Recover the amino acids of this structure.
């Protein structure tokens, strides 16, 4: 591959095509081309969906910074405001490209390259350098930041936010360095900037100090300064007259622009804002002689066609009722885009050569692992997951080839290392970025995910990814998990509003009044202010926020505040402690009686169970892993299991049940899953079928959706032992349901069953292990008393990298609705349209 890069650079033709690259080899080629050139390289992909996977793959092979430049998630000409995270990401990438202080790899999408953007000159004028220990006009700085798009707020939570509290300025700017991300805290004494610190959004605690920082604008909509406003407003009137003065809403839009108000949809009026310095494109920000690599040119061209079709259709609709500028003033046309791409060296990575092109493309021999994956899938049920893989690894090792296994986490690397050792295959740990030419023979494990593996026959190298072995995996952050305070998690300030009731561990119920910056013992710091009864105030340092928790009452009635220094709170805590001890004593008696009863002791997890673990498409959270270990420990003990797993929706309770069910089925027993609703039964049945699809496990579902003949057949097969796992509603509690060898009962949301059903559940409990799942338990002491809970597992940590929900608030607009429906249907998703009147629905 290195020789191919040199041949490309030596070629007289600027536009070249390469075919034969498969899987992640395109990322390896990009990394090697950038290393050979030692300058910035631009990659263009069809859609934003390819940005994160390609960036992840490139980081496995390159130590150059990888920058992404996404498109706005709002459709052309819609009256919506783009997500502030996307805006900050784009501004950060543009600034880093403009500075050109280091070679980088930028990845952008076809739609992002089409849109005209803020001019380089304007962006440079709105970047503010601040240095610790230097004099800075604080008031002027605040005015400049608000003018450049920052929104004043009480508490910084999102990019573009700024909060001012005395001499403290908190703001969340776009990143000015690949290594520094997140909000900043500027600590002023008068006009002297004493310190610049990064801080954590959740706890509001400072995390690191900086000598200097560059404050990038919080928006890409930057209005002219006072000295240019008169001329700009005059030009604005002339521009509007030339476009669509006859539209009724134009005058309102012009008035908002003159008042420099940012409103939804203003991004599509960019030429009116930047009149003298016209809008530019992302190509104008690229350093001189930047090569472009198109990942699948045909798909990129199809995407450009679709975008332009949407642009033209939306323009026709929008121009009828509001100010809408012609598409060519906002977007690059197809011919101009081609010229921009071919200005310097342009490499087209295609799966097959284009027969209509006269120039002969380069061919690179890189194999994919589709046949290996098929072989593993076919042999999986007969020989297990790793047997066919181990055979292939042995062949490669005997041939003197190098093999790299890209693992998504250290835990997965440890598992693979242990399993491969059982096949007499020794592994070596490798670090990323991988230097393939510097590694000797052997099997290497690297802790970095890869979307797809590939072979390099000419280099005797094979790179496999966890996604090929165990299914598609979710992208994970490589950042180290934050260390937790020994005193517990600090309260999430973004979840608190002024006047909310909170609980102090020593003083009881108080009212949250906000954060204040104060000087104490010669040091300035932030304090949480709480108000107690009779107006007493208490100031809590931000490093003691774990002493405070949010009040969660059983009713909507506002509770009575405690008085500072009174004995009421201590008396209340004492009574609760005594009640807990009383319940504990009662439970201890229950435990003692149950300890006398022996249960079935299941075998420890084996290779099949480990394969199921590896097939889980996410990394387990700490709470989820702990719950799984506790459940497996219960099953492998000689005492019957009675465990309740509590966790919020989406926290991974079902996977705990999957692991427990598989362990029981692996030992030849049956599992019954009891749920309160028919819909939930169907969902669970689909989930368990999907998780057990690669294993010889028979899953059935019985509920009112099944006909009488279907139910009769299921009951017969269950009694004969041909069904391993059955999911059902209260129908499972009928007398005719007689499993052949029931070993585990899983109950989901038991509190939703009636008294009669609970009595039948209790009879089942006497004979089998029981696992109960719930997201909304009734108060714990009552729950444990009524259900006879012996053990409790709590999953309190949400999944890492869980996609946040983006909410857009807009006026009723048929164009917005149409675009939302089309985008959701195009990605194969589901859409719910909630209307306020049945009559007009």
């Amino acid at each position: 591959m290195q020789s191919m890069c040199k041949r490309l650079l030596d070629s007289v033709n600027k536009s070249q095509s390469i075919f034969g690259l498969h899987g992640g080899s395109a990322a390896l080629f990009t990394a090697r081309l950038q290393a050979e050139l030692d300058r910035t390289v631009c990659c263009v992909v069809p859609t934003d969906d390819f940005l994160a996977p390609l960036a992840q793959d490139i980081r496995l092979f390159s130590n150059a910074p990888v920058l992404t430049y996404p498109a706005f998630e709002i459709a052309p000409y819609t009256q919506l405001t783009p997500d502030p995270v996307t805006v900050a990401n784009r501004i950060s990438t543009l600034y880093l490209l403009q500075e050109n202080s280091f070679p980088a790899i930028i990845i952008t999408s076809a739609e992002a390259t089409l849109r005209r953007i803020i001019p380089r000159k304007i962006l440079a004028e709105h970047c503010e350098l601040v240095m610790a220990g230097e004099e800075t006009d604080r008031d002027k700085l605040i005015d400049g930041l608000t003018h450049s798009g920052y929104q004043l707020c009480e508490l910084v939570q999102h990019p573009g936010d700024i909060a001012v509290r005395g001499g403290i300025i908190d703001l969340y700017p776009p990143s000015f360095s690949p290594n520094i991300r997140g909000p900043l805290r500027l600590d002023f004494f008068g006009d002297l900037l004493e310190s610049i610190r990064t801080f954590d959004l959740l706890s509001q605690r400072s995390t690191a100090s900086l000598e200097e920082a560059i404050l990038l604008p919080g928006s890409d909509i930057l209005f002219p300064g006072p000295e240019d406003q008169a001329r700009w407003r005059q030009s604005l009137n002339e521009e509007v007259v030339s476009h669509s003065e006859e539209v009724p809403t134009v005058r309102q839009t012009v008035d908002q622009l003159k008042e420099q108000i940012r409103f939804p949809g203003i991004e599509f009026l960019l030429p009116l804002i930047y009149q003298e310095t016209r809008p530019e494109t992302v190509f104008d920000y690229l350093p001189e002689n930047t090569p472009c690599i198109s990942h699948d040119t045909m798909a990129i061209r199809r995407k450009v066609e679709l975008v332009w079709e949407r642009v033209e259709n939306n323009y026709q609709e929008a121009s009828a009722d509001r100010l809408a500028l012609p598409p060519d003033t906002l977007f690059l046309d197809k011919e101009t885009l081609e010229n921009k791409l071919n200005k310097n060296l342009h490499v087209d990575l295609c799966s097959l050569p284009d027969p209509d092109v006269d120039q002969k493309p380069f061919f690179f021999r890189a194999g994919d692992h589709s046949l290996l994956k098929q072989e593993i899938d076919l042999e999986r049920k007969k020989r297990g997951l790793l047997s066919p893989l181990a055979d292939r690894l042995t062949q490669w090792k005997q041939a003197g080839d190098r093999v790299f296994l890209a693992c998504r986490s250290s835990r997965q690397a440890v598992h693979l290392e242990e399993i491969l050792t059982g096949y007499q295959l020794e592994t070596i740990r490798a670090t990323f970025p991988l230097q393939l030419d510097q590694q000797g023979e052997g099997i290497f494990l690297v802790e970095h995910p890869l979307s797809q593996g590939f072979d390099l026959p000419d280099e005797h190298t094979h790179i496999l990814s966890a996604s090929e072995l165990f299914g598609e995996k979710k992208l994970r952050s490589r950042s180290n998990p934050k260390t937790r305070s020994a005193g517990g998690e600090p309260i999430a300030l973004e979840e608190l509003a002024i006047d909310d009731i909170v609980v102090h561990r020593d003083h009881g119920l108080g009212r949250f009044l906000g954060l204040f910056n104060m000087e104490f013992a010669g040091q300035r710091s932030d304090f949480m202010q709480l108000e107690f009864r009779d107006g007493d105030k208490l100031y809590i340092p931000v490093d003691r926020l774990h002493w405070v928790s949010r009040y969660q009452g059983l009713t909507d009635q506002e509770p009575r505040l405690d008085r500072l220094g009174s004995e009421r709170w201590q008396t209340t805590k004492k009574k609760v402690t005594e009640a807990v001890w009383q319940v504990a004593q009662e439970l201890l008696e229950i435990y003692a009686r149950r300890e006398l009863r022996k249960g079935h002791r299941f075998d420890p997890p084996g290779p099949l169970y480990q394969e199921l673990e590896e097939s889980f498409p996410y990394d387990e959270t700490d709470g989820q892993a702990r719950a799984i270990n506790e459940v497996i420990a219960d099953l492998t003990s000689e005492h019957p299991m009675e465990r309740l797993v509590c966790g919020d929706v989406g926290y991974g309770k079902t996977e705990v049940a999957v692991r427990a069910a598989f362990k029981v089925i692996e030992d030849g027993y049956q599992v019954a899953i009891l749920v309160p609703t028919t819909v939930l039964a169907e969902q669970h049945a689909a989930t368990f079928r999907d998780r057990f699809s690669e294993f010889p496990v028979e899953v059935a579902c019985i509920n009112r959706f099944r006909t009488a003949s279907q139910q009769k057949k299921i009951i017969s097969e269950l009694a004969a032992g041909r069904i391993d796992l059955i999911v059902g509603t209260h129908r499972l509690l009928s007398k005719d349901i007689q499993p052949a060898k029931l070993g585990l009962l899983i109950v989901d949301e038991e509190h939703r069953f009636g008294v009669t059903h609970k009595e039948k559940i209790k009879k089942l409990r006497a004979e089998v292990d029981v696992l109960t799942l719930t997201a909304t338990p009734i108060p714990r002491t009552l729950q444990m008393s009524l259900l006879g809970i012996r053990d409790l597992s709590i999953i309190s940590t949400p999944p890492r990298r869980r996609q946040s929900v983006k909410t857009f608030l807009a006026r009723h607009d048929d164009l917005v609705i149409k675009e939302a429906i089309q985008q959701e249907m195009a990605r194969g998703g589901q859409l719910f349209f909630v209307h306020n009147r049945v009559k007009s629905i």
Summary: The chain has five domains: 2-120+278-363, 128-215, 370-470, 493-566, 617-795.
